[in-house]
Design goal:
With 132 residues, the protein is an alpha+beta fold. It has helices spanning 14-25, 63-71, 85-94, and strands at 3-10, 31-35, 40-47, 50-57, 74-81, 105-107, 111-116, 126-131. It has an eight-stranded mixed beta sheet with strand order 2-3-4-1-5-8-7-6. It is globular.
Length: 132
Amino acid sequence: MEKIEHLGIAVRDLEKAKTLYSSLLNTGCYKEEEVKSQGVTTAFFKSGPNKIELLAATNDSSPIAKFIEKKGEGIHHVAFAVDDIRSEMKRLAQDGFVLLNEEPQIGADNKLICFLHPKSTHGVLIELCQDI
Ligand code: CMX
């Protein structure tokens, strides 16, 4: 687990959130990408060395739609950069963490990703991500 790669924030209206975060961070969104397999459109911002990912649902069964319905907008996940996602997944599964996918999936921003169930991490959805 090398560093926090980004924070994911669930938003209802991506355009409105992009405008607000551009103003907050005093810099524009540098990348916008739809990830069909996850049911999301994402918009990325940089704040110094750190990254923020805004996430909006693209359909009603998207994890983001469900999250907002239940908890409202806000921090959705914390993503950690890893060098070798498969070996980290194996290590974490052996240590009792609940992995939400058995194989790495392709996520936004050219990454292989895997999520850990928030019930196994004190209520925080954790993402592992490795550069492709
Ligand atoms: N953070 C913290 N808790 C969360 C959560 C989140 N992001 N999403 C759901 N939960 C909580 C729910 O509130 C619920 O808690 P209670 O039982 O206390 O009410 C519990 O987790 C529900 O768990 P569940 O019934 O097993 O599953 P859900 O149908 O609610 O789905 C989750 C939750 C995490 C398994 C699902 O959202 C998932 O698979 N997420 C991974 C994929 C994803 O989030 N993709 C979108 C981002 C993609 C990207 O970053 O590009």
